[in-house]
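> forwarded from #structure-qc
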């Protein structure tokens, strides 16, 4: 059996790596990948805690987390696809004008 501390260290490394990707990269797809890595770190923590305490609550939580994550990825990828079709860019800096783009698309 793997000790809880080893699982938590790996989960923390996954979370920090995902957070670094989210904070340092500027492309939307890389930001999504970083979020997925962070959620995998959380899932690993839940599974390790469930194994440590000897119940299946962590595994049930991970199944629910993966279901929500899959739905989130589908919606996010559709939004990235639409942003690329409309603006021909997926970098965050080029998409910051989306907030006040009400009259530009009609002219």
């Amino acid at each position: 059996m793997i000790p809880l501390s080893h699982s938590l260290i790996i989960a923390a490394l996954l979370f920090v790596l995902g957070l670094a990707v989210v904070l340092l990269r500027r492309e939307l797809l890389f930001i999504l990948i970083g979020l997925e890595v962070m959620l995998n770190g959380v899932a690993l923590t839940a599974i390790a805690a469930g194994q440590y305490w000897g119940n299946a609550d962590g595994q049930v939580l991970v199944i629910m987390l993966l279901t929500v994550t899959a739905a989130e990825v589908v919606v996010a990828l559709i939004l990235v696809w639409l942003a690329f079709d409309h603006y021909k860019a997926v970098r965050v800096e080029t998409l910051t004008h989306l907030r006040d783009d009400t009259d530009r698309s009609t002219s």
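QC bot note: The helical segments are 4-24, 28-53, 57-87. Residues 57-87 form the longest helix (31 residues).
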